[in-house]
Amino acid sequence: MTPTLEFPLSRRAQNAAGQPISSLMQQALAHPELISLAAGFVDQASLPVELTSAAATSLVSDPVRAREALQYGTAAGHQPLREIVLQRHRNDDGLPACEDQLSVENVVLTAGSNQLLHLVADTILNEGDLVLCGAPTYFVFMGALANLGARSHGVACDDGGLIPEALEDELRRIEAAGELERVKAIYVVSYFDNPSGITLAAERRPQIVEIAKRWSKKQHIYVLDDAAYRSLRYSGEDVPSLQAYDETGETVIVAQTFSKSFSPGIRVGWGILPSALVEPVLNQKGNIDFGSPHFAQHLMAQVLSSGEFDNHVAVLRESYREKQTAMIKAAKEFFSSLDGVHYVKPQGGLYLWMQVPESIDTGIDGKLFAAALQEGVMYVPGIYCYPMEGAPRRHNLMRLSFGVQTPDGIQEGMQKLAAAVRQVL
Ligand SMILES: Cc1ncc(COP(=O)(O)O)c(C=O)c1O
What we know:
Number of helices: 14
Largest sheet: 9 strands, mixed
CATH class of the largest domain: Alpha Beta
Oligomer: single chain
Radius of gyration: 22 Å
Bound molecules: pyridoxal-5'-phosphate
CATH superfamily of the largest domain: Type I PLP-dependent aspartate aminotransferase-like (Major domain)
Helix content: 40-55%
Distance between the termini: 59 Å
CATH architecture of the largest domain: 3-Layer(aba) Sandwich
């Protein structure tokens, strides 16, 4: 008799199992009739079909450029696009080129900013290492950390985002536990956070960079500034990235993307890295794909050079502003009579972070999730967004996304959700 063979999996593959996103996708697929306030997709109707078509046509109409774009590129990516994103970053931060420490050599193009986040984590973290992040924070990044055997450690947040004093408290606790040397990075989603919608307050930005530098006692603690939603602002003034406060250019890593402002299907993201990290990150990337899709990078360079990109983003902002208004209006209309409901209107992004009464567990196995499915609406349970260590995990929050649904769909979804909350109270 042939012996039964084992199918061994690496520890990393085992760590990758059980992601929240898979169970949510399963629920969505099993109930196609649902109004999903869970999906973090961008608005289907405003995807830039004409702009992409014009850019692709222009690109392929020149055989020399077309062949270049259709060939492999370098690990760091298409040089003209790297120059454009650096220049745009400087303009956004109001920094003249002569005043910052960065050059195009610090820019690495990736297949979306998720790849950059993963590459950085893979480059700086060993098993058991710690990344401090907001409680709550972007759950996909926590998944990437878990995958590598690293740990996410929560820091308390308020309406101004990550609280610098709480960050120092956690660092003190970690030091007292003899683990300071395991802290390798502080991760912040600094504009219109996923999931909380909060923008890190302007005065906290230099403080967080200063804390990272001061606590870099034996090893460097990086600040990973995830600015994925920066261009989706609907009110208030833009604030400089954390990188603007990194005078030596050694501490802050910026992760950015065209997924939200243009198209996640093209999936071009980038990182602006401290010089010491560029080569190690490129070495990792060299082993993985030795360059992200080159055609997509040429296409984005063409779109940006056409001068139409900013007009598109302006139209997009209008469309999302309308959707956000619909969600806030519906929240007021259907939830204001419920005690214990709390939310802050974000100045941009795609999410509303809603707290329901303490007595309600918003988790996937809780009564509210089931009642919401029965009413015909779905949300992301907040518990997925909390790190396993550090600041307490909370069970009575939900992430509501207004990116995908129409304003009418949002209104209907919110009405159904409020009905579900009433049912379980
Ligand atoms: C906070 C945050 N960072 C990064 C990403 C990754 O986006 P992409 O890989 O498409 O650039 C997302 C996507 O939803 C996000 O919400």
